[in-house]
Amino acid sequence: MKTCYSIGRYISWLTLLPLLVTAVLITGIFLYDRTASMERSQLARGQLLVRQLVAGCEYGIFSNNLEFLHELASQVLREPDVLSVHITGHDGVLLTAVGDIEMPIPATAGQTTHDDGRRVVLFQPVYAAQLPLDRVEENTRSSEIGMVKVALSWEQTRREQRQLLLAVVLATALLLLVAAYLVYRASRRLTHPIHHLNFAVHAIGNGELYTRVRHEVCINELSTLTEGINEMAAQLQRERALLQHRIDEATEQLRMLAFFDTLTGLPNRRLLNDRLHQVVEAGKRSGRYAAIMFLDMDNFKPLNDNYGHSVGDLLLIEAGSRIESCLRGVDTVARFGGDEFVVLLNELDTDRDISARQARIVAEKIRATLSTPYQLHYQVEGQSPVSVQHTCTASIGVVLFQGEAADQEQILARADAAMYQAKASRDAIHFLEDTTG
Fold first, then answer.
1. What distance in Å separates the CA atoms of residue 393 and residue 390, rounded to the nearest whole number?
2. Does domain 269-379+386-432 correspond to CATH entry 2.60.40.10?
3. Is the separation of the CB atoms in 394 and 366 below 8 Å?
């Protein structure tokens, strides 16, 4: 499995590692140069002391003035880092010595220094009739009358080197810490908005389209990306709202197709059966009667035959609207099919006779309303509008029922039978009050 790292870690690696390598290299080079320079300075100082001592002790060696030579050596010993001073004659006899360190003997002719890591010993011959110090080697005819040896300690130099090393290491560490802090701050300015973007993308992917990135970004690329994600989320939210609206519309259309008549907008048989079931159950609890009316339109077929089904549909729509105007809000009118309608009266009285009177009043109101002549306006394509007046009465069969003794199929069947009995007289109302029949 491929290992992934955070962008903050990548930024740290790409920034701090090169900086660390560069700092170590520069520090190493600087320390090497400075320590070497300190050692060269120490050697140069020692060589200067030796030359000054050689220039001063020629007379003492030549005259064998040991007191004078001792004084010169003592003056040199007072200098910092000088461990000891030895002056010998031409035959190697020690003329004077100050200090407690034993001097080594040069291993080879012409050797001028000896370094054992803790101290350095400088050798310088003394010639008779000394020339200027910068031309000593040119005096090939002068004779050597003695030797000067000066031992210098490296302790002070090493101490300064250690102090320099500590100071440089501390300064480098401080610089790296400052750089690390700056890198951290810079990476935070980059990674923090990226984390916000990442969170927003995941949230949008999970369907939370209201998510917006509200973190202000000063980086142009990230600012552009932020605006793009916010705009994408807004667009998706708009599209989802539009899709949801279309789904709601389609659901409502399906509900209308499933439970309502497409012509009149009234409940169909399925919704009527559901409401009839509710009325039956409510009657079992309350003990109230309910009534169902089966209506069939008289004189409807001639209208269809003479003017067509489109005009007949206009009459059915008007008839449904008239029936609704005669009912309460708790009642239901449904188109049962063709020119047949069913009215369900809910929550009548607990007394049968009172309930029958209430149902008869509603039925008579519906019959009178439907018998009023219809003024139907229609237009055939390419022709002038036409107005048709038609009288269409209704035959109504009514059945009273109570919850405990009610059966839905039996109720509808008896209401249909009552309607056919009313149909024999036309524009009439027929009651079947005994539901057990």
1. 10
2. no
3. yes
Dump the DSSP string for 192-255.
HHHHHHHHHHHHHHTT-TT--------SHHHHHHHHHHHHHHHHHHHHHHHHHHHHHHHHHHHH
Per-10-residue mean pLDDT, the chain, length 437: 68 80 89 89 89 86 86 89 89 85 60 78 80 50 82 88 90 89 81 80 84 78 83 88 90 82 91 91 89 93 89 94 93 92 93 93 95 89 84 94 77 92 90 57
Name beta bridge partners: 394: 297
Starting at the edge strand that comes first in sequence, how are the strands of the sheet with 113-115 ordered?
A: 94-98, 82-89, 144-153, 119-127, 113-115
Question: Which residues, 6 or more positions from 325, have their beta carbon under 8 angstroms from its beta carbon?
Answer: 369
β-pairing verdict for 386-390 and 429-432: unpaired
Q: Which residues pair with 340 in a beta bridge?
A: 296, 337
Would the pTM count as exceeding 0.85?
Answer: no
339 is catalytic: yes
Assign 378 to helix, strand or coil.
Answer: strand
DSSP 15: H
Which one from 339, 353, 416, 427 is the annotated catalytic residue?
A: 339
Taking the C-alpha atoms of residue 113 and residue 290, their distance in angstroms, rounded to an integer, is 133
From 84, 86, 58, select the one nearest 148 (Cα to Cα): 86
For residue 104, with 0-12 CB atoms within 10 Å meaning exposed, 13-18 middle and 19 or more buried, which class applies? middle
3-state SS of 278-347 is HHHHHHHHHCCEEEEEEEEECCCHHHHHHHCHHHHHHHHHHHHHHHHHCCCCCCEEEEEECCEEEEEECC
Domain 7-158 fold: Beta-Lactamase (3.30.450)
Burial class (CB in 10 A: 0-12, 13-18, 19+), 367: buried
Q: Which helix (H) or strand (E) holds 144?
A: strand 144-153
Instruction: Please name the amino acid found at residue 349.
Output: D
Contact (Cβ atoms closer than 8 angstroms) between residue 104 and residue 114: yes
